[in-house]
Design goal:
Layout lengths: L24 E3 L11 E3 L8 H7 L1 H4 L4 E4 L3 E3 L4 H10 L3 E7 L7 E6 L2 E7 L8 E9 L2 H8 L10 H10 L4 E5 L4 E3 L3 H13 L4 E2 L2 E3 L2 E3 L2 E3 L4 E3 L2 E3 L2 E3 L4 E3 L2 E2 L3 E3 L4 E3 L2 E3 L2 E2 L4 E3 L5 E2 L2 E2 L4 E3 L22
Parallel strand pairs: 5-9, 11-14, 12-15, 13-16, 14-17, 15-18, 16-19, 17-20, 18-21, 19-22, 20-23, 21-24, 22-25, 23-26, 24-27
Antiparallel strand pairs: 1-2, 3-8, 4-10, 5-8, 6-7
The chain binds 1-O-phosphono-alpha-D-glucopyranose.
Length: 318
């Protein structure tokens, strides 16, 4: 699938297949890990919009019906039931809608009863507060519709306009209201909020090893994790093979596999696989560390800051 994921966090509710598309590459790393599937990446050469991304994948899609799932969207209830409903009625498009307090930040639907009258992308004056969720199910007619539209004011081929085109052409576009929570996790605050929502629902279990350590509340300690002189206060997840020494892990924290925390306190944060935090000397909170990030306090002189920080990172120093 073409992807615009800013973080590859969360799970996919659809299966992928191998193809012989010339620009496609099938990768077993790193994102396919743990999903038990093969994932084909089709790079979009320029960020010219979601409909453009879809057209980039045209030869991959063929005439099959498909799910377009924006990588930064997270739906509590997944999409398996919706895919079944879509397969049952085979409309040209099935879109998901949900009420939001800030509709001007999304595609917005105007309805007449259950019929969709109009879809408009990020309107200054939203006709309703019903946002388009970034998960769409399409039949092949959407490809023709995407070829027929013009770029929007922000220079993108909007998927919203392509769906509007289906409506204008008298095609069958159905909508479904999302009742469980939905998050567009494009920003750090949304990502942390999604993390909180996911952690609210975990079933506690301790499979790792605790040495002079304690867990409180709803906590998952996965296999092979080892805690020494550490307190984990839930809700929190400590991933497989993580090593926590002389550490405090506070509520709403997710630690990926192989994370190391030594002599440090971490709360309300997400640390992806292999991140390493030691001797911080201050509690870290509301943070997101990528894979294999190392964050440590040195004890040598001079007392300067040294860092290698990737693109688009943000660091706040107290
Ligand atoms: C995109 C879509 C928008 C949709 C949103 C959902 O916006 O264009 O219609 O409501 O995803 O996440 P973007 O997040 O790319 O600005």
């Amino acid at each position: 699938m073409p992807t615009r994921a800013r973080f590859d966090f969360g799970s996919f509710g659809f299966s992928t297949r191998r193809v012989t598309c010339p620009s496609a590459s099938t990768s077993a790393t790193p994102n396919a890990d743990g999903f038990g599937t093969s994932i084909t990446y089709i790079p979009q050469d320029k960020p010219l919009g979601l409909a453009h991304a879809m057209l980039t994948a045209e030869s991959f899609l063929g005439t099959d019906p498909f799910v377009m799932y924006l990588g930064d969207n997270l739906l509590r209830d997944g999409i398996a039931d919706l895919v079944e409903a879509f397969r049952g009625s085979e409309p040209d498009a099935l879109i998901l809608l949900t009420s939001v307090p800030d509709p001007w930040n999304y595609g917005v639907a105007d309805l007449n009863g259950v019929a969709i009258v109009r879809l408009v992308e990020k309107p200054a004056q939203p006709p309703t507060n019903l946002a388009l969720v970034g998960v769409y199910m399409f039949g092949p007619a959407i490809l023709e519709a995407a070829r027929a539209i013009e770029p929007s004011g922000r220079g993108e081929l909007e998927i919203t306009d392509a769906i509007q085109r289906l409506i204008d052409d008298g095609r069958r576009v159905e909508s479904h209201r999302v009742t469980g929570w939905w998050k567009d996790t494009g920003q750090l605050a949304d990502m942390l909020e999604a993390n909180r929502l996911v952690l609210e629902d975990i079933d506690p279990r301790v499979e790792g090893e605790l040495v002079e350590s304690r867990v409180e509340g709803r906590v998952v300690i996965e296999q092979g994790a080892r805690l020494e002189r550490t307190l984990v206060r839930g809700p929190a997840i400590v991933g497989a093979g993580a090593e926590l020494r002389d550490a405090y892990v506070g509520p709403y924290t997710s630690l990926g596999p192989g994370v190391v925390i030594a002599a440090s306190e971490v709360e309300h944060s997400i640390l992806l696989a292999g991140a390493h935090v030691s001797d911080l000397g201050t509690r870290m909170e509301a943070s997101l560390l990528g894979r294999n990030v190392r964050l440590e306090r040195g004890d040598g002189l001079p007392k300067t800051m040294r860092m290698i920080v990737g693109d688009n990172s943000e660091i706040t120093i107290p």
